[in-house]
Amino acid sequence: MTPRRPVDTGDPDRLYTVTGGRSRVDDDSFDLVTLIVSECEPTAGMQSEHVRILELCRHPTAVVEVSAELRLPVTVVRILLGDLLATGRITARHPRAARSAELPDSALLKEVLLGLRNL
Amino acid sequence: MDSATSELPARTPLADAAETGLKIVIVGGFGVGKTTLVRSVSEIRPLNTEEVMTQAGIGVDETAGLTTKTTTTVAFDFGRISLNDRMVLYLFGAPGQERFWFLWDRLFSGTLGAVVLVDTRRMSESWYAIDRLEHHRTPFVVAVNRFDDDVSAFSLAEIRQALSLPDHVPLIDCDARVRSSGKSVLINLVDHLYELAMAREMTP
User: Which residue of B has its CA nearest to A57?
Assistant: First the structure.
């Protein structure tokens, strides 16, 4: 495993610049395990973090993986993804079970069990 | 050898049909083997990231009498298991300390369930985690990581008593280094969740 390097390097300017000064998203539209898929190729002049996200997400990639790969806190990644989603450059596949007080149903769990037993 | 010593691949792409992400959280004190357990069952080398939250003076890292902005940073590891072409399970290894629970809803709402990993030499560290999971109404199992030098060898009954663990919460032994053992812990948890779901669905 790669040694743990802090994501938050104690340099607030860096995170401030990446998000254009925004520190929060209005909604919690991206769960840690929401899968992100690029809908276009990066274009010239695009912010470098947006470019990296579009490259990473050519195949479905969870928000938390984007965060780990970009070495940016999840909050910051949510803001960047919000930009891309608003302009139609990515799509988001939301988890069924998330953001709900409801516990998962037995049919879903049965599928999970099957998957684990087949490992 | 059925152990996690072989090197895992770096992050590999998911199947293009992947559409449903699922979460299971492994909670425990420092050095109890959370990352080891994640690594033993993950299809990728565990990755880590952080969540940072700035909050105006709420009782976290409380400085007596001062209402200043507080930044809470929680680091966590994660691994991944593709269950089939459509479903992918993410395993999060998370510290049990107080500031972590402050971010629980933000990070782990909608989680299927949790595994509390216990080291019998430091059982008191698990009390807080168990209390918090009950508070968040997150179903969980407790897995005792039997280290080689675990000479105390408490029985599961003794451990259940020490943790004041209710009878309905599954308690199992494991060796976090061994893939089949880690897999069995996850199956135990999902079996437990399945039984809870069935009981709920049978109730009109």
Answer: B13
Query: What residues of chain A lie within 8 A of the CB of B75, using their CB?
Result: 4, 6-7
Containing B82, the helix (H) or strand (E) segment is: strand B69-82
Distances (CA, A) of A59 to A39, A40, B126: 10, 12, 38
| A12-117 CATH choice from 3.20.20.140, 1.10.10.10, 2.60.120.580, 3.30.310.250 | 1.10.10.10
Interface predicted TM-score of the whole assembly (ipTM), two decimals = 0.86
CA dist A93 and B87 (Å) reads 11
- How many angstroms separate the CA atoms of B132 and B25, rounded? 13
Spell out the residues 6+ positions from residue A114 whose beta carbon is closer than 8 angstroms to its own.
Answer: B83, B84
Give the nearest chain B residue to A115 (CA atoms): B83
Q: Retrieve residue B84's tokens.
A: 């089939």
Which domain CATH number covers B137? 3.40.50.300
What does each of the 204 residues of chain B score in pLDDT, given as a tens digit?
Answer: 444 445 788 888 999 999 999 999 999 988 899 999 999 999 999 999 998 876 654 444 444 445 556 777 888 999 999 999 999 999 999 887 777 887 887 788 889 999 999 998 888 888 889 999 999 899 999 999 987 666 667 899 999 999 999 999 999 999 999 999 999 999 999 999 999 999 988 887
Instruction: Tell me the nearest-neighbour CA distance from B34 into chain A, angstroms.
Output: 14
Gap between the Cα atoms of B194 and B204, Å rounded: 17
